[in-house]
């Protein structure tokens, strides 16, 4: 009895191994991971009968049958109504099922089941998941919160918002072409809206501006929105860096000009002081020359007058000694008057020289004061 049970078990094991080795085998089930809303989807179920006859091929979505293919039936293909599933019978067979005009309800888990003919009715099955994608219809992602210019030390706080989609798209930030560090990212919850329950993705970027962020004076901030291999859009903003302003060239020129304008009066004052210092001596020499000329002129005038009288005395002897005495008296009076005038002129000139010397001394002191004030002003401008 025990031997009979062992024999039956052995035969069962051998039969099972035979089925795995030489029986029906499911080669591959191909389910597209992502399908764009409104497009067609092709489901494939590849099997190897290995000499057995095919009984049926059945397709299920989330556990519900929607397609059956039985070779001995007429027609062999048959569909069953299911929300979100529209089978294109003209492009479907035992190995391929084509879905047309897929929508968000078409997404789900699809399973292929292949069965062999009697007597074994061996069955193999495999499944795969399909996601229907509703792409954003609002163009590239939008960047908000940015400024046209940043200075070193400023904070960048910006957000990237993608259009409504299903599922939510993946967002990523790039700074000057390099992926932003994770600690600089600000993640927000996905926003679900509308009757179709579309999703909106938002990703923030926050960091303090440093010198390394500016390349050729610009900083490029780029946001990329992607969804598998079906969708890829980006938006980039280029912002300028405000460099610290240097001192205007005009200001430095004004400083130089001011120092030059201070130097010119000093130079002029030295020349004026020298001229004033030399003025008394020059005027005195000029005055003495005038006195000498005056005295000489008087002598000549007297001499000529005497010569004229002598000639008259020779021609007119009748005038006599009396007229000659009168002429001598006139010469003496003229000499006396000339001497007094000379002394008076010399006295006036000495007084004028003294006054000029005092004036020159006062002018020199005033110029020295002005020079000191100009130097103090120059030091103040330079310090500023």
From TrEMBL:
Alphabetized Gene3D superfamilies for the sequence: Immunoglobulins (2.60.40.10)
Biased composition (Low complexity): 361-376
Domain Ig-like: 37-125
Keyword Signal in annotation: yes
Keyword annotations: Membrane, Signal, Transmembrane, Transmembrane helix
Superkingdom to which the source organism belongs: Eukaryota
Gene Ontology BP terms: motor neuron axon guidance
Biased composition (Basic and acidic residues): 309-334
Transmembrane segment boundaries: 282-303
Chain intervals for the UniProt region annotation (Disordered): 304-339, 358-384
PROSITE patterns: IG_LIKE
Protein name (Swiss-Prot/TrEMBL): Ig-like domain-containing protein
Taxonomic source organism: Drosophila madeirensis (Fruit fly)
């Amino acid at each position: 009895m025990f031997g009979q049970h062992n024999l039956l078990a052995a035969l069962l094991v051998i039969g099972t191994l035979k089925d795995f080795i030489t029986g029906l085998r499911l080669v591959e089930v191909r389910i597209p991971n992502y399908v764009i809303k409104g497009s067609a989807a092709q489901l494939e179920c590849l099997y190897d009968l290995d000499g057995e006859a095919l009984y049926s091929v059945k397709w299920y979505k989330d556990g519900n049958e929607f397609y059956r293919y039985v070779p001995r039936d007429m027609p062999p293909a048959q569909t069953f109504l299911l929300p979100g599933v529209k089978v294109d019978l003209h492009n479907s067979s035992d190995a391929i099922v084509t879905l047309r005009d897929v929508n968000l309800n078409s997404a789900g888990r699809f399973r292929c089941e292949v069965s062999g003919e009697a007597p074994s009715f061996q069955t193999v099955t495999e499944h795969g998941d399909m996601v229907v994608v509703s792409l954003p219809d609002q163009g590239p992602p939008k960047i908000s919160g940015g400024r046209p210019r940043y200075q070193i030390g400023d904070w960048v706080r910006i957000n990237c918002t993608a259009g409504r989609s299903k599922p939510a798209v993946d967002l990523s930030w790039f700074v000057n072409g390099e992926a932003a560090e994770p600690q600089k990212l600000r993640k927000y919850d996905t926003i679900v809206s509308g009757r179709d329950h579309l999703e909106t993705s938002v990703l923030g970027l926050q960091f303090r501006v440093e010198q390394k962020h500016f390349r050729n004076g610009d900083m490029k901030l780029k946001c990329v929105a992607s969804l598998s291999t079906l969708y890829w859009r980006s938006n980039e903003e280029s912002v300028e860096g405000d460099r610290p302003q240097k001192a205007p060239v005009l200001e430095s020129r004004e400083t130089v000009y001011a120092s030059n304008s201070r130097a010119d009066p000093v130079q002029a004052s030295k020349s004026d002081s020298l001229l004033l210092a030399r003025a008394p001596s020059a005027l005195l020499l000029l005055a003495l020359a005038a006195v000498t000329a005056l005295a000489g002129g008087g002598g000549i005038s007297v001499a000529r007058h005497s010569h004229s009288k002598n000639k008259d005395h020779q021609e007119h002897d009748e005038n006599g000694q009396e007229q000659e005495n009168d002429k001598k008296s006139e010469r003496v009076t003229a000499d006396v008057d000339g001497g007094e005038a000379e002394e008076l002129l010399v006295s006036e000139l000495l007084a004028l020289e003294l006054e000029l010397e005092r004036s020159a001394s006062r002018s020199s002191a005033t110029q020295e004061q002005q020079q000191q004030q100009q130097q103090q002003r120059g030091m103040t401008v330079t310090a500023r």
